[in-house]
């Protein structure tokens, strides 16, 4: 197993990225749609509301994923398209305006309203951009209306966040002042932790996208350095670059090694010397290593297979392999965005099998043949694989749980250890019953 000392963070700029072979598959896929990202976005942006324009199936999906009871007052909802809308017998635009105005009258706390497209609204060619423009003419400046697509026709579920953040980019005020912009939805506790580290390093000008309130928009310009915190926000990062910002390439802040390299990418741009950096980060990295040490015996040597689902697969595979000693059988991802994961590719073992896209039946055949100790996959595939005797981990849990940064390193390892621990307990209980 490789430890943190084996690969100094300064090496990230010196190594030539490895040209790992990629198996590209274009068959049947098993993924959630982009509407699922509303579950964590609505928790983050406290003055925003996400109105899905879709079917009852869309409403059931979001409510089931969020675990919201019927009497709760969440910051999302569904404007349900009926058979009359789908058949063109009703004016869907007129009805949508009525629903939005009724919602805003009931919820005066809403400052930003996102109209979220779905498969049904896109099939009937309902123009939500025009709807947002029409509503803004009536509602600005009290309420701002934006739109993006959460359709699952051609996307994976994390790209819903990318669409929402990209919709905010045209609204960002212009400024060429030097600042660091962290892009990607993070739990508030993680954002607070990272902000304290940046302050300790002397990087005071730091903004996060999204902020806790959708109206709190960071500025953007030639002095903005973009540090992605999630690998699936490529369209947002490219939209920021079009406005003059520059992306910093780094591994993602998962585990002690990833977090150190991620912070170092920012520190070097702000002229932080290595002694200061080590003084601030080493105690945090040591604490993360102690938290990880309790899981290395349990996870070390266990073979893991990643099926494509969230686009977190490559950073998580790097974390499991390098910091916990888990051999990688195959690492699949829905879309291999090399601009966003170049630094991660360089840290994967040269013999790993990467796959992009999915042909689910063929991939399941490879899983059954390899018989991994742990398979990370979507919810729809986990239960069938469990029934076949394979331990699984739902990849969607990694989006609902704080996993970034030093303080969450142990929690991240535990997520992967739990299925193996549960299976060991079941096996022990079964053996005791038989005896």
What's this model, at a glance?
This protein has 435 residues and is α/β, with parallel strands linked by helices. 46% of the residues lie in helices and 15% in strands. It has 17 helices and 14 strands.
Explain this structure.
The chain is of the alpha/beta class and 435 residues long. The chain is built from 17 helices and 14 strands. Helix content is 46%, strand content 15%. Mean pLDDT is 90; it is low at 1-17. The chain has helices spanning 38-44, 56-66, 83-86, 92-106, 119-123, 128-139, 159-168, 188-201, 234-242, 255-269, 274-299, 313-324, 338-345, 360-370, 379-387, 397-400, 409-434; strands spanning 22-26, 48-54, 76-80, 112-117, 144-149, 179-183, 206-209, 224-228, 246-247, 304-306, 328-333, 353-358, 374-377, 392-394. It is globular and about 65 Å long. Helix 10 packs antiparallel against helix 11. The protein has a six-stranded parallel sheet with strand order 1-12-11-10-13-14, with helices on both faces. A four-stranded parallel sheet has the order 3-2-4-5, sandwiched between helices. Strands 7-6-8-9 form a four-stranded parallel sheet, with helices on both faces. The longest helix is centred in the middle third of the chain and has 26 residues, at 274-299.
């Amino acid at each position: 197993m490789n430890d943190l000392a084996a690969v100094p963070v300064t090496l990230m700029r010196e190594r030539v990225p490895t040209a790992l072979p990629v198996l590209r598959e274009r068959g049947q896929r098993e993924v959630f749609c982009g509407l699922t990202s509303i579950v964590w976005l609505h928790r983050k942006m406290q003055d925003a509301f996400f109105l899905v324009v879709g079917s009852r199936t869309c409403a059931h999906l979001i409510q089931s994923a969020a675990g919201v009871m019927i009497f709760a007052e969440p910051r999302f909802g569904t404007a349900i398209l009926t058979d009359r809308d789908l058949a063109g017998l009703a004016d869907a635009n007129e009805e949508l305006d009525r629903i939005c105005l009724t919602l805003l009258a009931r919820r005066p706390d809403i400052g930003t309203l996102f109209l979220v497209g779905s498969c049904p609204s896109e099939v009937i060619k309902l123009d939500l951009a025009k709807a947002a423009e029409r509503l803004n003419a009536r509602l600005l400046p009290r309420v701002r209306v934006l739109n993006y697509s959460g359709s699952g026709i051609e996307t994976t579920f994390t790209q819903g966040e990318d669409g929402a953040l990209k919709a905010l980019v045209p609204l960002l005020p212009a400024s060429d002042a030097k600042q660091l912009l962290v892009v990607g939805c993070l739990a508030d506790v993680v954002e607070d932790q990272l902000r304290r580290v940046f302050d300790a390093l002397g990087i005071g000008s730091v903004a996060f996208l999204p902020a806790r309130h959708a109206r709190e928009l960071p500025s953007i310009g030639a002095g903005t350095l973009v540090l992605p915190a999630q690998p699936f926000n490529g369209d947002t990062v490219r939209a920021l670059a079009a406005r003059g910002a520059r992306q910093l390439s780094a591994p993602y802040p998962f585990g002690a090694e990833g977090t150190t390299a991620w912070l170092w990418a920012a520190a070097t741009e702000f002229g932080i010397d290595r002694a200061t950096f080590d003084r601030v980060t080493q105690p945090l990295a040591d604490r993360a290593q102690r938290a990880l040490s309790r899981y290395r015996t349990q996870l070390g040597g266990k073979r893991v297979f990643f099926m494509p689902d969230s686009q977190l697969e490559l950073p998580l595979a790097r974390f499991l392999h390098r910091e916990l000693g888990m051999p990688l059988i195959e690492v699949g991802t829905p879309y291999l965005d090399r601009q966003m994961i170049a630094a991660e590719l360089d840290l994967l073992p040269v013999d790993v099998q990467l796959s992009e896209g999915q042909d689910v039946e063929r991939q399941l055949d490879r899983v059954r043949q390899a018989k991994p100790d742990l398979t990370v996959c979507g919810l729809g595939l986990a239960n069938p694989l469990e029934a076949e005797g394979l331990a699984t981990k739902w990849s969607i849990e990694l989006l609902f749980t704080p996993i970034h940064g030093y303080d969450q390193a142990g929690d991240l390892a535990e997520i992967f250890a739990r299925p193996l621990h549960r299976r060991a307990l079941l096996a022990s209980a079964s053996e005791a019953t038989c005896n």
